[in-house]
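A reminder before we start the practical. When you read a complex entry, don't treat the lines as separate problems. The point of joint prediction is that each chain is placed relative to the others, so the output describes one connected object in space. Small molecules and nucleic acid strands, if listed, are placed in the same frame. In the example below there are two entries. Take a minute to note the order of the lines before looking further.
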Amino acid sequence: MDASLPALVVVVPMLAAILTALAGRWWRRHAWPVALLATAFAAAGSLRILWRAVHEGVVLYRMGGWPVPTGIPYRIDLLNGIVLAMVACVSFLSVLWMRESVKREIRQAGQASYYAVVLLFTTGFLGITITGDVFNLYVFLEIASITSYVLVAMGRRREGLFAGYQYLILGSIGATFVLIGIGHLYMATGSLAMTDIAARLSGALVDHPSVVHTSFAFITVGLAIKMALFPLHSWQPGAYTYAPSSASLLMAATATKVAAYAFYRFAFTVFGTHYVTARLPQVMDGIMVMAAAAMVVGPLFAVRQDNLKRMLAYSSVGQIGYVVLGAALVNASAMTGSIAHFWNHAASKGALFAVVGIVVLRSGSPHIDNLRGLGRRAPWTAAAMTVAALSLVGVPLTGGFVTKYYLALGTLETGRGVLLAFILLSSLLTAVYMWRCLQRVWFADPDLEPAVTREAPWTMRVATLTFGAACLVFGVFAWIPVDIASAAARALLGEN
Amino acid sequence: MSALLDSVLATAVPLDRALLLAAVLFSIGLAGVTSRRNVLIMLLSVEIMLNAANLALVTFSKVHGDPTGQVFVFFAMTVAAAEVAVGLAIVIAVYRLRRTTDVGEVAALHEIDYGPVRYPQLEGQPVHHHGSSGNGDGDGDAGETGGQPAVASEEAHG
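Here is the predicted structure of the whole assembly.
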């Protein structure tokens, strides 16, 4: 069981998806428990894998026992251990959260299929994270993307259809770029296993340097679309705004960050630190500019939004900048901050989208004014929102502060102090739009009738509070994410 | 017959021509998706781009004399089929709503953005009106009457 856990973590949600889709026609009420059990298994399994990666080193699983260049290896080191645990835990909490929301927002006949799509979505992102084979990564990337288009289009608002279409076109272009990049990589090295490509790359760089450069360029652009890195983010605000609340929660907390992980994996494991720093440093400089711009432009747009979902979507555009900046700086401290941000952002954005979903459930609309008086009528929900907002801003004792501290350290160590101004400006703007929310939550005119009149159902409350508590845990016990993230960063950069 | 086959195989397309074709197909797809206004043609253009990638993969596998690359193309084609299925489903749903395939007119669905997004009213759930919700929302309300059935009320109560 323990030895085959890496395969089971992906296979169980996939089989559960098929089961849900087939049986859901007759036993609609069983769709949610099946999805919950499958994601709970994935969450427990991935935490166990992360534990093994921390204590025993790289976990390697060969599909069907085939040796590495022939068969597909599942290879979990600290970096994808972190992302795997994030995806699985977020999926579990989201599925726990979504029962009432799905009953409200999805047509009755579509509910079982909705859970099946959610499970396939989880399978896709777990697969991208866990696999050690680049073509397998592409297939899982497509599974994850196609299910995302479906999730967006399943919203009750008809704008969701066009948002889903826009996402489909841009996402498919991104996937095509990634596929062409992988094809060039295969051309240059004749292999598809990540470690095998890495070993053959120095030879390929002598024989066909331009093929390798083309491959890196295509993969970088493709993944930049997938992770909604400014200025390629145009699909994201619509998708997150019009998707059902539960899909927004799931996607915002996982989707773009997994694409960012894939970029880390390609840049530092497949192409290698030497390649990105010595052979093609311009790409990383370009990524750095885009990340810095994203950090400021995302919050700048978010400040003007009255629709909470759209506000948080633009906020995600900014936050992905933090995740990518560490990679672009190629510095251990900055990368520690960025890798820790995989967890910190999942916790804070998960909590915020969970709260917005509760507001939509109780009041019917994600308008910012519907937050008024939330603190009086739903104190637990409001508390989770407050903690998550503080973490997003980066107040000490929350996870967001840890990220920003290490990123700031990294900018100074690499002599790019000007980026510090971007981090500060971004935090300031984040504080502005989060204050607009918190002011309504806690300091609304007491004469106004609150739009949310009572607390959320217990499943939602438990999930929301867990997300909120995670923001605090990652800030107060900062050594938990930081130790693992810094070891992961050093392993990626080849420092020890 | 076998002589014919041999002659076809002997005069196989040179690899650089195949790559050139892939590049041309890719450019056609990219040009189509950026310049055309029809949602169906945009979808087709994306698929042409994907097939350019497939053609490149097959060519690369020929370079290595290794059939793995061709096997991957089958996976990529399966994935593309799933993508087209989802894409067409969305296009059909959009067409049923708007009776148009022009991306500009379809995007009018988006214009409601500037007002607060109100969800369809749910039974037993009072909708709160705000001072600002009057304008910009009319399009959405007009659309609301013609379309999807409301969620069954016993489900809505949870």
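Discuss with your neighbour: The longest helix of chain B spans residues 68-98. What might explain this?
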